[in-house]
Amino acid sequence: MPTRNTSPVVRPGNPGRAAEGGTKERARHGAARRRGRSERLAPYVLIAPAVLIIVALRLYPLALGVNFSFTGDGDANGTAVGFANYLELLDDPLFQTALANVGLLVLLLPVAVAIPGLLATFIYLKVPGHRFFRSVYFFPAVLSPVIVGAIFNLMLAFDGPLNEFLGAVGLGPVDWLGDPGVAKFAVVGVQIWATFGMALVVFLAGFATLDSSLLDAARVDGASLRQSIWHVIIPSLSQTIQFVFVTTMIGMLTSMFGLLYVMTSGGPEGSTYLPEYYIWIQQGQMNRPALASAASTVLFLIMLVVGLLQISVLRRAGRED
Amino acid sequence: MKRTLCAGVVVLALTVAGCGSATSPASTPTGSAAAGTTKLVVWDWKSGEPYAASYIEKAKADFAKKHPNVTVEFVPQPFEQYYTLLGAAMQTKTGPDVMLFNGGGQIRDRADSLLPIDEYVAEDRSRLAGWEAFAKDGKTYAAPVTLQGHPIYYNKALYEKAGLAAPATTWDEFLANCDKIKKATGAACFALGNKEGIGPQFWLSGLGSGVLTPAEYDAWIAGQRDWKSPHVKKIFEMWKEAGDKGLNNEGANSTAMFTDIFSVFNTGKAAHIIGLMSDIGHWKDFGEFIGPDKVGVMLAPTVTQGATPSLAYDGGIGYAVAKWTKDPKAAADLVRSLTTTDALSSFSAEAGAIASDTTITAPQDAPAVGVIVFHLKTGKPALHVAMDSKTIDLMGRLSQKLLSGSATVDEAVEELAASDQEN
Question: Are residues B283 and B217 in the same domain?
């Protein structure tokens, strides 16, 4: 905590002192003043590296990017076009799909949080083989999205093992990655599979702080498993759950590019586009860097809102503490 | 406290120095004419491949004879990231002096950053083919290295099993043949991978010459695309028909073009594939699996009267010169060295590409190449190469909708017409 008494106490010199003492006093006085100035400046100098790095490597490029989004592409390169890029984005059905998919991800968030939460609960309650599951569940979290995507490309191929299995049990094949209604859920499912290990670890850490006497008391009072989860575990873990919600949301919005790139390339019919994939296509394939900058700015604003929500949620959780 | 301040100043100084070096370009890739020696930087996605080694060596040797004081550095980039990296370099006007391009939309979209090289390559005009793919508004921006096209390959072994002697020349006959092959071998008519939406580009260019009249074809290439023409619509109707009648392999919309679909053809699960001429998905790849003598090449079956089927091809890849290069003459000479008959012969032989040089003879052990080279004389530019990249991207998504039934041909053609006219 900062205190108000950081400035050094400089005592005023006594004017009634002897002359020889007066020179010494002045010298001491001057040294103290210099010390005072250097101490006042020190904090600014010390935070200067961090500020400079943030300004030069973060804020300045950000401002450049936003500025760039108000210029044109191709022949209009470098000329100001006002909000034309943003209007084009609003008009582009592909970008609308990308934004709608962001909404879908937010809606699917409870599922993405509930799965690791439930599995962590089972591990905490020491179901048979819980040690094995604890390590196996974490395993996908160490794989890169590209490898995960490649594995599921094979698994979910039209003539792949999953459809063969469905055929063997008498169910028709599903075009997992070729049917727009199915593909987006397939990709989100794979994303959850690939990342829930990390959330599981966070939940297990949360369980470590859980007061086991509460659970014992509930058990003595005859609470069922469902009642224990609902009335004891969830309230005790509210902070952990909030944290997992926020981190999972950020993860879904910013780290699905690799999976999309490998699994669907934004298809079929553009149904699995997310803003970051859209940005990449416009910049790299369509040679529309200014339009991509506008899309980046929109994504930045979305992330800013998510970030501010995150801060408010964490702050509230902190207050409850 | 003085020590604190001093430490702070040192940290600050180090940070400023660090920022300075991080934000300034690490090196200047453009030719820096220092003390009489110049350096040319070349970006491509080929020079790192083992099969291109002797091609690059020969080109370098040829260039060294003309410009002994100029050093050349080839920087191979990953193809997936190539145009993203190039786009960033072009924005800052600090990029390579010479760079490789795919013909068509990719180079035309970036022509404003390139130097017209017509005056330098006049001598090579008649020897090389495929210039149009690198031209915009009457100016040429790159010299072709390979030719890329879309022949219709067929599996002769499957044809023999179905008792068919020769490929069809009309669409109805073609459909009847497919029916016979399906009954005799169980193979699908077309191997189609449309996960990325690339399928309709191959379809349009592979089959278009059998549907459009020569006048319509030439007008299309010249930019006068009549989307209201029933023949244009017919091409997309055929695409839908192939999907609806089960002519394609199953799961076309979720099968990747360059990784998965060629194996469908290679393993005899489909009788036809509209493939490529150079690089991948071509006669050499297929020949390794089904045997070089079993790879057949056919022209598009005739759909409408008056259409004259031809092989669709363009310049495939070619080297261009950046506008910002300090020594345009040397850069253009490097492009010329990269397209000598000697260098291209190496590339053709080792990469299995159809080189742009018309004086190179085709290898004797692959009959399919002979057929392709024979059809080059009457060939025409591919239909999709004349379109802009935005409309092509839209066509990819619409083609998936046509296969899944969530869009009609009329809707698709209307949307494409609007996009084509807008861009």
Answer: yes
* DSSP-assigned states of every residue in B316-357: -EEEEEBTT-S-HHHHHHHHHHTT-HHHHHHHHHHHT--BSB
* DSSP assignment string, B188-212: EEE----SSS-HHHHHHHHHGGGTS
Q: Which amino acid is present at A175? A: D
Q: What is the ipTM of this complex?
A: 0.76
Range of the domain at B299: 151-311+380-422
Instruction: Compute the distance between CA of residue B302 and CA of residue B209 in angstroms, rounded to an integer.
Output: 8
Per the structure, the count of domains in chain B is: 2
Of all helices (H) and strands (E), which one includes residue A259?
A: helix A257-263
B262 and B180 share a domain?
yes
Total beta-carbon pairs less than 8 A apart between chain A and chain B: 127
pLDDT, tens digit (0-9, with 9 covering 90-100), for A6-23: 444 444 445 445 555 566
B139 & B273 share domain: no
| Per-residue pLDDT tens over the stretch B111-122 | 989 999 999 999
Cis ω before A268 (30° cut-off from 0) = yes
Cα(B262)–Cα(B255) distance, integer angstroms: 10
- Residue B312, pLDDT > 80, answer yes
Q: CA-CA distances (angstroms) from residue B355 to B101, B293, B296, B339, B343?
A: 15, 21, 20, 9, 10
- CA distance linking residue B95 with residue B44, whole number of Å: 12
B181 lies in the same domain as B59: no
What is the enclosing helix (H) or strand (E) of B101?
strand B98-102
- Percent above pLDDT 90 for chain A: 50
Q: Which residue of B has its CA nearest to A39?
A: B1
CB contact (8 A) between residue A287 and residue B87: yes
List residues of A whose CB lies inside 8 A of any B CB: 34-35, 38-39, 41-42, 45-46, 48-49, 52-53, 56-57, 74-75, 77, 94, 153, 156-159, 173, 175-180, 183, 264-265, 267-270, 280-281, 283-287, 289
Across residues B291-319, what is the average pLDDT? 94
Task: Evaluate whether residue B298 is within a structural domain.
Answer: yes
Name chain A contacts of B92, Cβ cutoff 8 Å.
none
The CATH number for B85's domain is: 3.40.190.10
Residues B319 and B306 in one domain: no
End-to-end CA distance of chain B: 66
Whether residue B223 is contained in a domain is answered as yes
Query: Is there a single domain that holds both residue B137 and residue B231?
Result: no
Residue B271 in domain: yes
Same-domain status, B190 and B224: yes
Residues B149, B208: contact at Cβ < 8 Å? Answer: no
Please check whether residue B14 lies inside any domain of the structure.
no
Ordered DSSP codes for B11-60? HHHHHHHHHHHHHS-SS--S---BTTBEEEEEEESSTTSGGGHHHHHHHH
Helices (H), B222-340: 230-244, 262-266, 283-290, 328-337
Q: Is the pLDDT of residue B330 over 90?
A: yes
Same-domain check for residues B87 and B116:
yes
Q: At a CB cut-off of 8 Å and minimum separation 6, what does B415 contact?
A: B394, B398
Name the strand (E) or helix (H) holding B142. strand B142-144
Q: Alpha carbon of A279 to those of A95, A102, A105, A247, A294: distances in Å?
A: 9, 14, 18, 23, 9
State how far the Cα of A100 lies from the Cα of A102, in Å rounded to an integer: 5
Instruction: Say yes or no for a CB contact (<8 Å) between A158 and B12.
Output: no
Q: Residues A33-42: what's their mean pLDDT?
A: 84
Check CB contact under 8 Å for B250 and A158.
yes
